[in-house]
Amino acid sequence: MPHLVRRLLIVPWIVIIVLYIGACMRVNPTHTPTTTTRYLLTSYLTITPSRAPLIPTLVLKTPTLKATITPTPITYTVVKGDTMLGIAIRFGVTLEELMVANPQVNPRILSIDTILVIPLGESSPALPATPIPLPITIDEPDCFSTASGGAWCFLLVKNTRNEPVENVAARILLISSQSEVVVEGVAIPPLNLVPPETAIPLIYYFTPPLPETYKPIAELLSALPVTEGDERYLSARLKILSEAIEPNGLQATVKGEVSLPKRSQPANQTWIAVVAYGTNGEVVGVRKWEANSALEAGEDLPFDITVYSLGPPIERVEVLVEARP
């Protein structure tokens, strides 16, 4: 019996000692493979509190300079038989655009070998700004209908300055009874030079059809000064030998001579314009004459010109001349 009790008391101590030794022993853990689940991260904006607003930084890049090609001006050299309108049609531009591009050229007086700048839109070189016209006097235009349904319009301009002017042009607009612009055109004179204290008509023909009633109005487009001693114009002289107006006033004939001073250069181009005026001082007809031969200094060149009225009877006529070397 005592031996049994002694054994029962010893067993608990043995268990405690075994547990203690097991805890103190180093146990190598066994790694058990596990399955890792992958998640996709979705980005989103978050508002970050800040005491001052965030200002984005602009990064400016210096542009690389590339060589640009300056377009060569498109020009045309006038040949015999050319007209300003014909050249405009040939290149697909309007007469007004061609005139604005060449303000130094009179559309009615094209000299052979004259170089014209052709405006062909954005691809063409930039044209110089059109100069502001000189303040010369212009009257109200007078228009006379033709049998075909068109109309000839005359606009008298007066050079009241003490210097000659050139390249005079004006826009004529036909206004309907509803105050709408029906059609417009650029009127130009028969001669390019307008001496001081001289009047000359600007002319434009409106092709049919036109409205039965309209009101013509005009605005000056161009009038440039002629520098003193300009060698483009010669001092031509007129001598009127006779003037005859028909009894019905529908036509008038002027005969005379044009000459140059003895020490002048010869004139290779000579033009004469006969202007017919009505009773109220309005222009009723214009006739231009061009010499078919050169005019030498000291010689007389005869002319015989008949002008016709497009409206009222002719009251008087005036003769103008221009000569160029």
Write the layout of secondary structure elements.
Layout lengths: L1 H23 L50 E3 L6 H8 L3 H7 L13 E3 L19 E2 L3 E4 L5 E9 L5 E11 L5 E7 L5 E2 L3 E9 L8 E11 L11 E9 L5 E9 L9 E9 L5 E8 L9 E9 L7 E9 L1
What attributes characterize this protein structure?
16 strands; Immunoglobulin-like; 325 residues; 3 helices; four-stranded antiparallel sheet; mainly beta; globular; Membrane-bound Lytic Murein Transglycosylase D, Chain A
Descriptive notes:
- By secondary structure, the protein is mostly beta strands.
- Among the domains are: 75-123, Membrane-bound Lytic Murein Transglycosylase D, Chain A (Roll); 137-225, Immunoglobulin-like (Sandwich), CATH 2.60.40.10; 237-324, Immunoglobulins (Immunoglobulin-like, Sandwich).
- It has helices at residues 2-24, 84-91, 95-101; strands at 75-77, 115-117, 137-138, 142-145, 151-159, 165-175, 181-187, 193-194, 198-206, 215-225, 237-245, 251-259, 269-277, 283-290, 300-308, 316-324.
- The strands form five sheets. Strands 3, 4, 5 and 9 form a four-stranded antiparallel β-sheet that branches.
- β4 and β5 (151-159) form a beta hairpin.
Write a concise synopsis of the structure shown:
With 325 residues, this protein is mainly beta. It has helices at 2-24, 84-91, 95-101; strands at residues 75-77, 115-117, 137-138, 142-145, 151-159, 165-175, 181-187, 193-194, 198-206, 215-225, 237-245, 251-259, 269-277, 283-290, 300-308, 316-324.
